[in-house]
């Protein structure tokens, strides 16, 4: 059962919590030991909170997951993890994540609690509302970045927040497109899918890709960015972002396979290599050029 509980926490999804770590990197505080430790602690808190959210979501969607070709193998839906055990574990993780957040200050704690409340609302109600569901997902990413700013006590960059929100909307719409590819019975696995059409989601996804690329390009060329980092080389990272956007769109547009977009990304060598190289280039520009 321990393995089932670990699987329920979905550790592979915790990669999303690296957005909490972004502020310490872009604020040029990565070399400060205190800021680094606080940022790592913030990521850990959000991993605990995310694990609790995923467990709760699996409890709420247990019956729908049982009818899904892949999700029916999830520990709770398959009966490997009893409902009462999963419920107690989720409550425990919520409590521990909030308790841990307190050590990083009141603003961080309030943001972490807002993230938890948002996801509670999403699990029980908001995920069934057209477009509101993807806005909730995007807001979750925004709260991660804001929490990261509070953790290391740096002013939030409106460029960073804006690019994050647009990128998150793009990713959320890609997730919905991937789910719609299951077929006409997709709404049986997620009710809101019955209110979306493949054409509309695809158009919105590409629109968000365009705005994300435009916003990030503008950010790299903005006078404030050049002044803050002391170099105009940041624009060299734009091709990596463009490749990532295009590659993600390709991955979610494939009709074969019903794994999640996150799993598709992590299993795609070109996408992973692009992320690694982008990270290396960003760190090189910020801390070495």
Shape: globular
Report mean pLDDT, rounded to a whole number.
Answer: 89
Corresponding CATH architecture of the largest domain: Orthogonal Bundle
Please give the alpha-carbon distance between the first and last residues: 50 Å
Radius of gyration: 19 Å
| Name of the CATH homologous superfamily of the largest domain | UbiA prenyltransferase
Write a concise synopsis of the structure shown:
The chain is mainly alpha-helical and 289 residues long. The chain has helices at residues 2-8, 22-26, 33-60, 62-66, 75-78, 83-102, 106-124, 132-152, 158-180, 198-221, 223-229, 238-253, 261-266, 269-287. It has 2 domains: 1-156, Tetracycline Repressor, domain 2, CATH 1.10.357.140; 157-289.
Describe, in plain words, how this protein is organized in 3D.
By secondary structure, the chain is mostly helical. It has 2 domains: 1-156, Tetracycline Repressor, domain 2 (Orthogonal Bundle), CATH 1.10.357; 157-289. Helix content is 71%, strand content 0%. The chain has 14 helices and no strands. Helix 3 packs antiparallel against helix 6 (83-102) and helix 3 packs antiparallel against helix 8 (132-152). It starts with a helix and ends with a helix. The mean pLDDT is 89.
Features:
mainly alpha, Tetracycline Repressor, domain 2, 2 domains, 289 residues
Q: In terms of topology, how is this protein built?
A:
Blueprint: H1 2-8, H2 22-26, H3 33-60, H4 62-66, H5 75-78, H6 83-102, H7 106-124, H8 132-152, H9 158-180, H10 198-221, H11 223-229, H12 238-253, H13 261-266, H14 269-287
Helix pairs in contact: 3-6, 3-7, 3-8, 6-7, 7-8, 8-9, 9-10, 9-12, 10-12, 12-14
């Amino acid at each position: 059962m321990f393995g089932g509980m670990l699987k329920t926490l979905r550790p592979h999804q915790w990669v999303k919590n690296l957005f909490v770590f972004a502020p310490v990197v872009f604020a040029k505080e990565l070399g400060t030991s205190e800021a680094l430790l606080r940022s790592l602690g913030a990521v850990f808190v959000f991993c605990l909170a995310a694990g609790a959210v995923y467990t709760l979501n699996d409890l709420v969607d247990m019956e729908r997951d049982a009818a899904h070709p892949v999700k029916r193998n999830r520990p709770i839906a398959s009966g490997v993890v009893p409902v009462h055990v999963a419920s107690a574990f989720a409550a425990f993780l919520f409590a521990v994540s909030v308790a841990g957040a307190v050590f990083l200050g009141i603003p961080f704690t309030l943001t972490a609690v807002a993230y938890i409340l948002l996801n509670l609302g999403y699990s029980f109600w908001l995920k069934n509302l057209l477009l509101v569901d993807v806005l909730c997902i995007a807001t979750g990413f925004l709260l991660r970045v804001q929490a990261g700013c509070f953790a290391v006590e740096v002013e939030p960059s409106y460029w960073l927040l804006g690019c994050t929100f647009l990128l998150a909307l793009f990713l959320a719409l890609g997730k919905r497109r991937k789910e719609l590819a299951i077929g006409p019975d997709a709404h049986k696995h997620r009710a809101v899918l019955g209110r979306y059409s493949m054409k509309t989601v695809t158009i919105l996804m590409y629109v968000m890709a365009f705005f994300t690329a435009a916003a990030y390009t503008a950010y790299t060329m903005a006078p404030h960015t050049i002044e803050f980092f002391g170099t105009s080389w940041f624009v060299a990272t734009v091709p990596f972002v463009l490749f990532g956007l295009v590659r993600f769109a390709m991955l979610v547009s494939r009709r074969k396979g019903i794994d999640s977009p996150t799993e598709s990304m992590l299993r795609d060598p070109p996408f992973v290599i692009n992320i690694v190289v982008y990270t290396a280039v960003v760190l090189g520009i910020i801390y070495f050029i």
